[in-house]
Specification:
eight-stranded mixed beta sheet; 38% helix; 14 strands
Length: 272
């Protein structure tokens, strides 16, 4: 495990307005980029791989076209041309947001390099089966910041689908072995009394997951890859398979929170 390597997710609900199609939160994205840059300057030993959600860019189109579900490529389904048209439109929207994120990271002085999953990831029935990570490793070793994002991918069994940032992190985690995964969203963490939001769960593990599960919800906005429920389940499974890995879900809307968490401060909910 590389304790100096961080996977950082900028949630789609954080950097976009998920209730309004294709709407960026430019001030939030700019602040986050600057905080990442400050953290890297403050601790030269840190390495970071950034991932971001598609928010109101990709998810709205994906729901419209059913892209996450895929289809059976070897049938005579007359909707196949419409499926691929939708697939391409989701691709376009996801990459439109990705370009905005990359521009903001570079404006903050971050040496960011894009690794679009649609160009290199292959899956089978939603499960990632092939992804060469050698260039991502080279980028990290060179002191660069690889950037991935929720994106369309080709799938051997269902034609095509969407892989979320968490699913991409899960695949990369077993190969790159980061010390921490930081998930920045719009909630303070995982609430035990959602939507009242008065009781924050500061730690989730196999010891208390049964207590937490009833309070987990999906997303309040359009999200084809699931909300908090899916996120927690995926991250807990990942923590089980990667002993020593620390996963933190925290509120990225608070100024300075990403800087503080990257530099080791405990906030939000820790999954271990």
């Amino acid at each position: 495990m590389n304790k100096n390597l961080i996977f950082l997710k900028l949630g789609g609900s954080l950097i976009t307005n998920k209730d309004q199609a294709s709407t960026l939160r430019p001030d939030v994205l700019s602040r986050l980029a600057k905080e990442i840059a400050r953290a890297l300057q403050a601790d030269p030993q840190l390495s970071v791989l950034v991932g971001h959600g598609s928010g109101s860019f990709g998810h709205v189109e994906a729901k419209k076209h059913g892209t996450r579900n895929g289809f059976t490529p070897h049938t005579n389904d007359t909707n196949q041309p419409d499926y691929w048209k939708g697939f391409a439109q989701v691709y376009r929207q996801a990459h439109k947001l990705h370009t905005l994120v990359m521009d903001e990271l570079h404006s903050a002085g971050i040496l960011a390099i894009s690794f679009p999953p649609s160009a290199s990831v292959e899956s089978s029935d939603h499960q990632i089966t092939n992804w060469s990570t050698s260039n991502i490793v080279h980028a990290l070793q060179a002191g660069l910041v690889p950037v991935i994002f929720g994106d369309v991918v080709f799938d051997r069994k269902i034609g095509g689908t969407i892989e979320s940032t968490e699913e991409l992190f899960s695949y990369l985690c077993t190969r790159l072995k980061p010390g921490r995964i930081l998930i920045a969203g719009v909630e303070d963490g995982v609430w035990l009394d959602y939507p009242a939001n008065t009781k924050l769960c500061t730690q989730i593990s196999s010891a208390n997951i049964e207590e937490v599960l009833p309070s987990l919800q999906g997303s309040r906005s359009t999200d084809v890859t699931g909300g908090m429920d899916t996120k927690v389940r995926e991250m807990l499974a990942l923590a089980h398979s990667s002993p020593g890995l620390q996963i933190i879900i925290y509120n990225g809307t608070q100024a300075g929170s990403t800087l503080a968490v990257m530099l080791g401060e405990q906030r939000g909910t820790t999954i271990c």
